[in-house]
UniProtKB/TrEMBL annotation:
Domain of life, per lineage: Bacteria
InterPro entries attached to this UniProt entry: CIS_tube_prot_N
Domain spans labelled Contractile injection system tube protein N-terminal: 7-160
Pfam families: CIS_tube (PF19266)
Protein name, entry field: LysM peptidoglycan-binding domain-containing protein
Amino acid sequence: MAGKGGLDKLTITGFADPGFNSQARTRPNPIKVMINPDQYSQAMGVCYTKQQGAGGTGKKVVFNRDKGEALELALIFDGTGTVPDAPTKSVDEQLADLKRLIYEINGAIHSPNYVQLAWGSLLFKGRLKTMGIDYTLFAPDGTALRAKVKATFLGYHDNTDGRAAQKLSSPDMTHVVTVLAGDTLPLLCHRIYGDSRYYLAVADHNRLDDFRTLEPGRSLLFPPIAQAGR
């Protein structure tokens, strides 16, 4: 909560694991911005796969996966001394702290940190995609006194969390599965429907000549269980 008479500040916290459980040892961590953004943008996307329709005519557009979320925002860093409760660090020092937290390689995990951005109702977990810096105010000697950072973050979740969030194990939706070495049709049916007995219906749906030998890399369409059971 904000202190009396104050406002909550956007806070950026670095983590060393994709579960966002272990806070990174990068210092400082977290970083609390002194000037909140005047706006931010969130974007979402969905990926589809085109599948040949029954009878070889037309194509179906089938849900594959979501593309995740993206967050775009601009942050102001000030070194004029006129912002209440602002750090005494210069703009260059503040930017160095930010880059160390969200952009530079964390040697312990051999990649940039996972980052969480929290402000009001916003709670975004992801990783930095791009960052640009515009310097907008200078002292007479050329020292930067104000800078605007434009950053884009990509939402992050591991495969387990992603599948749970998308409910990809639901038997009531269409699935597109890429065959891996060792996969069998009964095994895939059991994985998706919870029952291997639908393998003949799935073989017919995909017009498979030999369902006993699946070619790795091939995409198979698994219809909703109501259709597979017909």
